[in-house]
Backbone:
């Protein structure tokens, strides 16, 4: 699975993108986030504030219960603050 | 039509291209967002917009399609920049052409409210206390919520 | 700021002048009205806008002042042409700059609704059956009525 | 009093502007319109459809009961159809 980090999640994680091998027990977004937090202090820091972490699976917004699979592209980022005024 | 680009754009050229040779268009409503010199943390020297190449374009295309489904529009355009921008520079253009001016106003406002809350862009401001990522605003969520389908 | 003129105008130049060096402005909402080739009586070759020199300027100034009193605006502009215009030509520009985008959208729409019902301009269309004066539309009255002060 | 005509009122009246001497009995807009209609067939034609005639006194919109005086500039015109879409 390709995992992307944006904005301050990228800073905290220390990189923009990584390739990870998903354990069989991880099947949805909630499980994925819980598992990612165990991987390193950087992962834990990036995901510490769970309520503000937004998730996209294959470039579409996803919720906690949405499924994830090994070939997916998952992006993690804070709420968007697009360029209007 | 949507475009995500680092380069500056000229709203007049964009709108002229949008209208093209369509002589049925009675009005064009547009919004241009500019970099402000004052942010919540004080004066800023510049800001950098990060985006998610691929998803950003996809999401912009989806919202333009939704606007076109909701209102009778002749044409609809979003141009959004990324990268480093200084105060006074244009960030975004949303332009809507329609023979119905109410539809053009509603659709343009819908696009702008949507951009604030769903378009994958993140703003890093360079202020007196260093660079900081901008946090979302509750009022923007409220503005977007008014367009929820009943 | 308002201007009534025979000559064409460039919306981008007008808006750039309106924003000027004001780096507090976060957004500009604008409306550009265009001559449509189709009118109620069929295709038109051109139209002529008559106005009331003196009263027209005075009324436009009054409505801009009212918009500025109702909403927190940084700048507000109407440019309106008169004389003979062909399909595709720009008739009018209403542009509003504000640090609050909701205020900019509301104020711009207010100006446009107002223009339709109160600005002393009259449209003579040159159609297949000759020239005819355009009649007012009930929907425009309704659009203007929504801004009545409670 | 200076009286101005616009759009099809001008066509029907046959001129854009005239200088008239107001009778003493004419003191408001309603009386002015009633008097003007008696002046000529052109005046009568211009003012035949009273409900659609709009009036401005000294470049401000006026109603039937508003006062008029000899030095005023009065304009008569149909509902405006300004240049938006």
Residues:
């Amino acid at each position: 699975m390709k995992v992307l980090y944006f904005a301050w999640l990228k800073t905290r994680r220390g990189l923009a993108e990584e390739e990870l091998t998903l354990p069989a027990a991880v099947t949805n977004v909630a499980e994925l986030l819980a598992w990612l937090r165990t991987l390193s202090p950087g992962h834990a820091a990036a995901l510490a504030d769970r309520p503000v972490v937004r998730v996209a699976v294959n470039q579409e917004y996803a919720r906690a219960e949405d499924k994830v699979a090994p070939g997916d592209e998952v992006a993690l980022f804070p709420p968007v603050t697009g360029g209007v005024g | 039509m949507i475009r995500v680009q680092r380069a500056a754009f000229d709203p007049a050229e964009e709108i002229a291209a949008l209208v093209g040779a369509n002589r049925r268009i009675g009005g064009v409503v547009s919004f241009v967002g500019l970099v402000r010199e004052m942010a919540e943390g004080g004066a800023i020297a510049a800001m950098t917009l990060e985006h998610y190449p691929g998803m950003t374009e996809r999401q912009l295309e989806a919202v333009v399609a939704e606007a076109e489904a909701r209102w009778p529009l002749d044409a609809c355009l979003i141009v959004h920049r990324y990268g480093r921008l200084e105060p006074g520079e244009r960030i975004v253009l949303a332009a809507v052409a329609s023979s119905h001016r109410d539809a053009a106003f509603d659709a343009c406002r819908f696009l702008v409210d949507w951009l604030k809350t769903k378009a994958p862009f993140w703003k890093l401001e360079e202020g007196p206390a260093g660079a900081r990522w901008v946090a979302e605003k509750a009022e923007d969520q409220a503005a977007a919520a008014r367009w929820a389908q009943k």
